[in-house]
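Homework-ish question, so no full write-ups if that breaks the rules, but can someone show me the predicted structure for this set?
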Amino acid sequence: MSFEVKIQTEDFDLSHEVAQLRSSKPQVGAVCAFVGTVRDRNEGSDVSNLELEHYPGMTEKSIQQMMVDAHQRFDIISSKVIHRVGVLGPLDQIVLVAVISAHRGQSFQACEFLMDYLKTQAPFWKKETGPHGSHWVDARVSDDQALARWGIDSRNALVS
Amino acid sequence: MKISIRFFSSLREQLGISVLEFETQSRDVSQLRSELMLFQPQFAEVLAPGKAIRMALNQVVCDGSEALSEACEVAFFPPVTGG
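A: Not a homework solution, just the prediction itself:
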């Protein structure tokens, strides 16, 4: 069981990260990876760039805790999360969640679980810039609902 | 006791403060929020009850009832929007 969390400004290479994750592990039969990217539109408005802020220290700790939880819930061999911070533009990669397991079902589920968890519990904040200026992105109730499917109560998007 | 308070995202921008070294009389995180609201008018507005504010003590999300201790780190921030 191992967890790797990287918070970085640099881009990442999916093939390289997956190759590293499953290297020397012949028991692996399934690799599931999710990559989140910057869209050029959000909530009906054009987006020219995104600025991602985070809480150094707490970010890594909270994601590691999510990975511990994922390893307890699912029969997986290892997982890796990379999240970029700083200024990103449309087409840029933002986040990678990769999970390896013996069979596909567990890595599919764990990958989605980690992503749902990260969206509502990891301390990152997005600021969008478009033709009408900049604003901080609002949290979505649908992200809380996604985590609720796993039996976890998240109230991230609640007003108070 | 002396503690460290951190602000992120829109709260950091509204207050113009990232880190505040603060001498507090408060026992827990909720009391600290109230104490800050009396400390300066800009805090009263940003930290007002009913605002969507999340809190963390020593880098773990908390609900406000957790006790403060010497040199602890408290953070205030809006709902998270990563991923």
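Now go work out the reasoning yourself. Hint: The two ends of chain A are 38 Å apart (CA to CA).
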